[in-house]
C-alpha cells in the first residue's frame, strides 16, 4: 500500500531552507521548541533524507518537544526538518506491519488508517508528531500499563549513522544501535524510515468512563483500579487546591467501542480554534489558574459519567486548540514530567504536589498516568509507577522550582522525561539515570566524534558545544 502523490509539491528532491522567522535574509533564524525556547539556526528540508542528513547535526520533525532536545547546539547552524519525507511506503493488511518515512505525521497516519480499522498501538497526547520523533522520544500514552511505549511495537529502523552509512537496525541486526535509538532523542543517528506494527480496532469511537475524584490519595487508588480494567487511563488534577482536597480532579478511562454499541457512522472531524496571538505573561498566574481549575473540576458535575466519545476528544484534547502554547506569553513555559516508582509508595504524588504548591507553582495542566514495565529503549522514560506532567510558566524562579522537584524525584528513585525537559541540571540527570553510561558507550561506538548532538545533549550529557 502506497500513499498518493502529494499535490502541489514544488521542491522535488531539492534542498531548501525552512522559511525564516526573522526575515532578515541571512538564512539564519530562531529555531524554537514548543515551550518557547529558541536558538539561532537553520532548518533544511528535503524529500531525500539520505542526502540532506550529510550536512546536519540533528534531525527534527514538527518541533513539539517542549525544551531543547530537538534544537541544535548554539554554535551549530543546521538541522534537518524531516516533514517533506512523509511517504507511506508499505502496509500488510494481514499482519498490520507498516513502513513509512520518518517525517510522516501521526495526524496523517490517523487519517489514513482509522477509517480502515487500524490505529497506532501507542499514541502520545498530540497528533502533531512525526514517526521519527515518536521513536526518538519513545512516546508513551494512556495505555502504557498495557502496551508499553511506542518502541515496543517498532520492528525495524532505517538510519543514516554518523560516518555516512545507511543501514537497517532491529533486534536481530545492530541491536545496540536499535535499542539506543528508541528513546535516544535523535543522538544515535538520523532516522530515515520506521517499520511498526499497527493495531486493529473495532471502531473509531471510544467507550469512556469518567469520575470526579476528591483528593490525590483517592485519585491514585482509583487510577490503579481503572488500569486493571481498561487499557487507556489518565487523569487531570488540580494543583492549587490545598488541604484535604489537594489533587482533586477528573479520572478518565476507556477503550475502542465495539461495533454493537458504537454509532454506525465514522466520526466526523472536530472543529478547531486557534490561539491568534501570545497572551501577556501575567495572564497565567495563580489566580487565573485557580479559576480555570475550579471551573474544570465542577464541569464534571455528575460524580460518574459513561458514554461514547470521539477518538480525538479522548486521545488529543489539546489538539483542538491550535498554537495553545501562546497562552503562556513571550517567556514561554516548560513541562516538567517525572515518573515516581511504585516503591516510593502511594503518597509520593501528594508529597510532590506539596513541594510544588509550597513554592507557588501554578500549573493549568497537570496530567497523571499509570506506567507499566520499562521498555527496550535504553533511555526510555517510563518505569512501573505514576507519571505526573506539569505545565509551568517560565518565571524568574523556575530553575529553583525544577531543582526542588528533581531533588525529590531523585530521592524517591524516579526520573524525568527528556522530551519535556528544559531546566534539569546535568548532575541531577546523571544521578537519576544509571543507564546513561551504557547509552553513551553505544553512542560513542557509532559516533566517536559527536557529529550528531543537540542543545540538550550539550547541557545534560556534556557534549561539545
UniProtKB/TrEMBL annotation:
It comes from the Bacteria. GO terms for molecular function: FAD binding; oxidoreductase activity, acting on the CH-OH group of donors, oxygen as acceptor. Residues 30-201 form the FAD-binding PCMH-type domain. This is Putative oxidoreductase. It comes from Sandaracinus amylolyticus.
Amino acid at each position: 500500500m502506497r500513499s498518493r502523490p502529494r499535490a502541489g509539491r514544488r521542491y522535488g528532491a531539492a534542498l531548501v531552507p525552512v522559511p525564516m522567522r526573522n526575515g532578515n535574509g541571512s538564512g539564519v533564524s530562531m529555531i524554537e521548541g514548543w515551550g518557547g525556547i529558541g536558538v539561532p539556526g537553520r532548518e533544511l528540508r528535503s524529500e531525500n533524507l539520505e542526502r540532506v542528513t550529510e550536512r546536519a547535526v540533528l534531525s527534527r520533525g514538527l518541533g513539539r518537544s517542549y525544551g531543547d532536545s530537538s534544537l541544535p547546539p548554539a554554535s551549530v547552524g543546521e538541522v534537518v526538518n524531516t516533514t517533506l519525507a512523509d511517504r507511506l511506503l508499505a502496509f500488510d493488511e494481514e499482519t498490520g506491519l507498516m513502513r513509512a518515512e520518518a517525517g510522516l505525521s501521526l495526524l496523517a497516519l490517523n487519517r489514513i488508517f482509522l477509517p480502515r480499522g487500524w490505529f497506532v498501538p501507542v499514541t502520545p497526547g498530540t497528533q502533531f508528531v512525526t514517526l521519527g520523533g515518536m521513536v526518538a522520544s519513545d512516546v508513551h500514552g494512556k495505555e502504557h500499563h498495557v502496551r508499553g511505549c511506542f518502541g515496543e511495537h517498532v520492528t525495524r529502523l532505517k538510519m543514516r549513522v554518523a560516518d555516512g552509512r545507511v543501514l537497517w537496525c532491529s533486534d536481530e541486526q545492530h541491536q545496540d544501535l536499535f535499542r539506543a535509538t528508541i528513546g535516544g532523542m535523535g543522538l544515535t543517528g538520523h532516522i530515515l524510515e520506521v517499520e511498526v506494527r499497527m493495531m486493529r480496532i473495532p471502531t473509531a469511537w471510544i467507550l469512556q468512563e469518567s469520575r470526579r475524584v476528591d483528593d490525590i490519595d483517592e485519585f491514585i487508588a482509583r487510577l490503579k483500579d481503572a488500569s486493571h480494567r481498561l487499557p487507556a487511563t489518565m487523569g487531570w488534577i488540580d494543583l492549587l487546591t490545598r488541604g484535604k482536597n489537594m489533587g482533586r480532579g477528573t479520572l478518565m478511562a476507556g477503550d475502542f467501542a465495539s461495533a454493537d454499541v458504537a454509532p454506525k457512522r465514522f466520526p466526523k472531524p472536530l472543529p478547531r480554534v486557534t490561539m491568534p496571538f501570545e497572551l501577556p505573561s501575567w495572564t497565567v498566574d495563580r489566580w487565573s489558574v485557580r479559576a480555570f481549575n475550579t471551573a474544570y473540576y465542577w464541569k464534571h458535575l455528575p460524580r460518574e459519567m459513561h458514554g461514547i466519545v470521539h477518538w480525538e476528544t479522548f486521545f488529543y484534547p489539546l489538539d483542538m486548540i491550535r498554537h495553545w502554547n501562546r497562552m503562556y506569553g513571550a517567556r514561554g513555559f516548560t513541562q516538567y514530567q517525572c515518573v515516581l516508582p511504585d516503591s516510593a509508595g502511594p503518597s509520593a504524588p501528594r508529597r510532590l504536589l506539596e513541594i510544588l504548591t509550597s513554592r507557588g507553582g501554578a500549573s493549568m495542566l497537570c496530567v497523571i498516568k499509570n506506567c507499566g514495565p520499562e521498555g527496550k529503549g535504553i533511555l526510555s522514560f517510563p518505569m512501573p509507577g505514576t507519571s505526573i506532567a506539569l505545565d509551568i510558566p517560565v518565571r524568574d524562579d523556575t530553575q529553583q522550582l525544577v531543582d526542588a522537584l528533581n531533588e525529590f524525584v531523585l530521592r524517591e528513585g524516579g526520573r524525568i522525561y527528556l522530551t519535556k525537559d528544559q531546566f534539569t541540571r546535568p548532575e541531577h540527570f546523571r544521578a537519576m539515570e544509571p543507564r546513561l553510561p551504557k547509552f553513551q558507550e553505544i553512542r560513542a561506538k557509532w559516533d566517536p566524534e559527536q557529529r550528531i548532538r543537540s542543545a540538550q545533549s550539550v547541557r545534560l550529557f556534556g557534549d561539545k558545544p
